[in-house]
Model the fold of this input.
Amino acid sequence: MPATITALSHYLPPNVVPNSYFSRYLDTNDEWIQSRTGIKERRIAQSGANSDLIIPAALKAIENRGIDKQEIDCVIVSTVTPDHMFPSTAAIVQHKLGIKKAWGFDISAACSGFLFALTTACKLVEGGAAKRVLLCGSDKMSSIMNFNDRGHAILFGDGAGVCIIEKSDDDSGIQDQILNIDGVGGKHLIQVSGGSFQPSSKETVEGVGHYIHQEGQPVFKAAVKGMADVSKEIMDKNNLSSDDIAWLVPHQANKRIIDATGKRMGLSEDKVMVNIDKYGNTTAGTIPICLSEWHLDGRLKKGDKIVLSSFGAGFTWGAILMEWSI
Ligand code: UT7
Done:
């Protein structure tokens, strides 16, 4: 049997930051932000670390599954904003939850992190190295945003989505994936300082190297092509037409990228999950937060064929085909 998502939940910090927050001190405005990105507001955590976003979502996902937390035997966190460079945020989550016997690790693939981590978790379950994975896609982007850089400060937000991955009871679950990485795009979207390339120092802290550096246009162009191409590729590979797809679950980086992907797949707008207006880009959080919201309010139904699709720093990009199991 394939592996699948058997329960999930999400958490967004309560502090809502509307576009007007930025137009008070930056040369930007609500009209520009909404028309160029689709974002109206985002959530920004006022305290705590990334793991503090994950824990409430994890507790709820475990409760939704109706299992004891001790039945989790692997914890995977996908993030670019770990609590620390090391130990892994997975270790912190395991410890905070009080899970006694598990292994785990972090995965860093930026905005494609959830897709890469979901594939990894499913292969571990299908191969028998784990029985029940707690899979967390979460980022506290406010910890690396330069609030004085209008080029990216308006784009990002904080949030977490957590899924439980197990073997499916039937044929539903993960069906196919196409995943890509190409470091040619590295320079366009990068946090330069704080790693072994340029360790933290007085100079790096006084500069901007610890913040996100993003060149919007080259990333935008590559994202439109990468996400649309790979989403169409997975449809063609599996002989699927737009009528076969119930939902596109796109990474929420820019509404224009999402629209281009949906159009390329031949999908009407009512088959495309969009919540970028409320949360901005929460990096590894966007796709599991969408899945959780649409599942909890009943719009995502058992048996639905869905395509998850993403593009992000690296460059990394990909698509996953799933049949929804719950
Ligand atoms: O999830 C990870 C991957 N990240 C992405 O996918 C992000 C991809 N990039 C984008 O979403 C878009 O490139 C942005 C939203 C970041 C920018 O939109 P754009 O349509 O590509 O704008 P642009 O960079 O071409 O800039 C157009 C103009 C420039 O002014 P001039 O040179 O024409 O006078 C910018 O300086 O818009 C200006 N601008 C802004 N104006 C008001 C850039 N940011 C802002 C802003 N408010 N926040």
Notes: The pocket of oxa(dethia)-CoA is lined by residues 28, 32, 36-37, 111, 150-151, 154, 189, 216-217, 219-220, 223, 253-254, 257, 281, 312 (CB under 6 Å).
